[in-house]
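Researcher: Final request for today, and then I'll write up notes for the group meeting. The sequence and the SMILES for flavin-adenine dinucleotide follow.
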Amino acid sequence: MFKKFCCIENADMSRYSTIKLGGHVRWLLFPRDEVEFVEAYQISKKAGYEPVVFGNGSNILFDIDFFDGVVISTRYLGRIERLEDARVSVGAGVNLFLLNSKLAQMELGGMEWSYGIPASLGGLIYMNGGAFGSEIKDVLESVTVFDGEKIFELKQEHLNFSYRNSGLGKLTVLGGVLRLFDKDSSKILETMADVLEKRKNSQPYEKPSLGSVFKRVQASEVLYPAKMIDSLGLKGVKIGGVEISTKHAGFIINSENGTAEDFKSLVELIEKKVKQKYQIELEREVIYLSERSRR
Ligand SMILES: Cc1cc2nc3c(=O)[nH]c(=O)nc-3n(C[C@H](O)[C@H](O)[C@H](O)COP(=O)(O)OP(=O)(O)OC[C@H]3O[C@@H](n4cnc5c(N)ncnc54)[C@H](O)[C@@H]3O)c2cc1C
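Model: Predicted protein-flavin-adenine dinucleotide complex:
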């Protein structure tokens, strides 16, 4: 069915996940541009599959042993094009390491905070990712989306961004225009290095993970899940091959050939303990394929 596309049948998704665990999917497609993307999506739909789109696999848990469906990677939507007025048009699949290096070459500042997030731009937009007081929505002028039938553009101000949520729902991000500012390459590189050092000092950066598992809690004051988890003495607690990082209690790392089931059990344990002590229901930032495929 997908012969004309770059496609892997019965793909092992642990290879496409930053936590290096997860099940298999029946079809994994890598469209080479937007035209192929639309075609692949529509062929899947006609065949009765609701495709799940993903970027760099740094926030999605492939928690189904065998997903009898289609997963589409944005990896090759890799356009980076400079526009007038310190703006840049970027494909959804562009990795943030590459993007930041290119922006430094172009002498465009404003994205340095994202250096070291192992994500695609599309994933970052979809999640409204952020760090160190910035969020992608702050520099996003517009986003190109696909609704399953047509491609169109949405201005940032018409979108419903909130903390770690773009409100894009079922839409696929194909790319975005970023509004940046002129800055010396050397200064950009300096800020990028600082940002990466901060990450390495505060996170289990070299270990396979999906980043912060839970969202901050927006109560009368902001509550940090990592602090709550730490206060419960849960750092280092293991289930199967995954464990709560001893460096940052908000991260679960795959330390010994863990499974998605181990991950989910540890998440449940944390949720239960936090609820018992703080009467707070934590909200997950990590997305499960089993939930995403139903949306
Ligand atoms: C070490 C580490 C550090 C991290 N640090 C941060 C941080 O500082 N700040 C932060 O916000 N996050 C951080 N994260 C989490 C993660 O990188 C972000 O959530 C990121 O935005 C996910 O991008 P991705 O391309 O990997 O998305 P994926 O994990 O591939 O997908 C995440 C979700 O977005 C959807 N999606 C992906 N691409 C698209 C698209 N083009 N169109 C529509 N839907 C799409 C998927 O279906 C899924 O629901 C970190 C993760 C790790 C492993």
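Model: The chain has a mean pLDDT of 97. The chain has three domains: 7-73, 80-196, 205-292.
Researcher: Thanks, that's everything.
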